Amino acid sequence: MLAAAALAVATATAAHAGYNIWTGEYTFTKQELQQAVDKRFPATLRYAQVVSVQLTHPRLVLDDANNRITTQMDAQLTNGLAAAPPVNGTLSLNSGLRYDKTQRAVLLDNPTVQDVQVQGMALYREQLNAIGAVVAQQLLKDYPIYTFKPDELRFGGKEVEPGAIKVDPEGIRVEVKDR
Asked: What is the pTM of this model?
């Protein structure tokens, strides 16, 4: 009997990768989240038809204390009106997480600028933050980091839906609750 129970648990776990039957949560590792965000890069955005911002090499930082995710990336700014060489720096965007029922997806929510570092451009900090705010909205607002398959939201013949989303140092946990 114990062997049959163990086999049932192993089968359920294999069929629903990332689902923990004991806690009733889906878990996503930092590496899985990083792979999802990597698909959005490289990205090139324009600001006010003057500045072009090329973003590469995203790096996730999980902020469990504030239940948020920070995406740090390399940024290269090019002024389309001046013949100056591109300026390199880093941009950090901070996002919450939410579940969207229509898309069946965990989305990055309300991304904001956390930090903009461009060497030799401290005088233009306000303008750089404004560019960063536009980049945050264009690049990461409502970006899906995981989309559930229909069978992942059905257990034992019951429909379930994601609830609370918690960031921890190793990834995120998404509570699963009955509809």
From this structure: 0.82
Tokens at 153, concatenated = 């939201």
DSSP readout, 100-123? ETTTTEEEEEEEEEEEEEETT-GG
Q: In the chain, what are the domains?
A: 17-178 (3.15.10.40)
Tokens matching residue 133: 């705010």
Length of the chain: 179
Distance CA 173, CA 165 (A): 6
Taking alpha carbons only, the member of 15, 27, 20 closest to residue 166 is: 27
Burial 12-49 (b: 16+ CB within 10 A, else e): eeeebebbeeeebbbbbebeebeebbeebeeeeeebee
- CA 81 from chain centre, in angstroms, equals 33
58 membership: H or E segment, kind and range: strand 51-63
Give how far the C-alpha of residue 102 lies from the chain's centroid of Cα atoms, to the nearest Å. Answer: 18
Nearest C-alpha neighbor of 64 from the set 97, 31, 91, 25: 97
> Using one digit for the tens of pLDDT, what is the confidence trace for 86-125?
889 999 999 999 999 999 999 999 999 998 888 777 767 7
